[in-house]
Model the fold of this input.
Amino acid sequence: MLQISGLRLPLSATEQDALEAARKRVGLSASSVMSGGVSKISVDARHGKVCFVYGVLLTLQPGLDESKFIGVPGVSVRQTKPLIIGRGSKAAGRPVVCGLGPAGLFAALLLAKQGARPIVVERGPAIEERAVKVERFNLTGELDENANIQFGEGGAGTFSDGKLVTRIGDERCDYVTEVLLQHGAPQEIALRAKPHIGTDELRGVITSIRKEIEALGGEVHFNTRLTGLLTANGRLTGVATTAGDIATEVLVLAVGHSARDVFEFLPRYEVKMAAKPFSVGFRVEHLQREVDRALYHEAAGHPALPPGEYQLSTHVGDRGVYTFCMCPGGQVVAAASEAEHLCTNGMSYHARNGENANAAVVVGVLDSDFNGDPAKAIAFQRELEARAYKVHGGYVAPAENVPSFLRGEGQLCVGSVRPTYPRGVAATDLGSLLPNHLTSALREGLARFEKKQTGFCAPDAILTGLETRTSSPVRIARRADTCSETIEGIYPCGEGAGYAGGIVSAAVDGLRVAQNILETYSFS
Done:
């Protein structure tokens, strides 16, 4: 197939217009093309003129040489490569997958497809029960430490925007997209440059994948928490859980970035870990229509345009300040997973039709801040979350208008932007909740963002805090074959282990780990 990229067309363009533009780019007649379709659509709002940028795939009639088009600007030959599955010889019993977020889910799926009949243990409940627990917390403040925004079927990504944007450039990304489509994700995820599923539709997709794992002979044990490892002579022999011990020679450790209890006990088994960089800050809310106006200018409101998304970044000294996990038409969510600790996140539904846009606005925390000690990094996260909780108690979130934060005034005046955090917010000097050097960097970064995007520091824009779970604060050391450096048979995996950041990259790492396991072991 020929991939033709960079086709700039007006907002009124149709798919047929894009196909004709693609054929014109390579000088082909309609009769020379067997089939064609749009592969990507993005919005270019630079220079004040908004347009769509299309990518198109063309399948040529048999006998036509695709290679002669190489060198034409924006044209390449696309070849889909199958996922390579090896066959190992080391005999092993059934593998255990700990965690049913994207990494664990895709690792378990591939293992199940290859007849390994994985046993999955997930500390939280299935999605339906999990959703009930999350809603109860939102309404009453009653937190279940194993069933919340962080823990349960689907992992932390379940209650998010379902973003599938990734920059890793791994061929496994296509496999991830195909699996999501097979299990009910909207077709548009294969087309949009910034694809998303939405938390409402993502839940059904995840449940469908889990049911396929079970249909293929896998087992999923919910409400089952990993409590320890069983080892002998540097090798894994089993895992300890709240439901009893499970004998196994292979463990996919995909526990997610908030499994602090697991990170605490791993050193007892000489599993090598280190602190890694992460970020902390707040959630910022604006009216979505004002974001659209700032990005799309006169074209704002055009029915063909998606809700506007932004991504802003700058460096203040040696620290990055940036926006992250932008949720158009979404809401700020209560993301605590430990009692009397408060943290936030963002989510949106598939329609992205809420009044507000929200995004994390965060500053980098360096591993050198903790001398590489993972325990100190986790303690820092906990300290911030405990501080945020104590300001008002009862999971009422500290909040402040953006201009007030810049001046250090601790004021909150609710205007056209109404805060969406479900447990309520109260005026707070947010700068006092972070170390001075991080507060200063955030203030400088926000001021710069206003110059990049008009209205970012608008009088009624609201910051809600704290955002602390941007990524794992630790990295579990592993070899090139993704096995633990210190314990044979343990495969640290995904975002919690420090090797991914987002749904797709975590799913890809799950596939990578499963491939390595299948190349090494033979499962009876």
User: Anything to note?
Assistant: Residues 135 and 148 are 9 Å apart (CA to CA). Residues 277-467 form one domain. The chain has eleven helices and 25 strands. The chain has a mean pLDDT of 95.
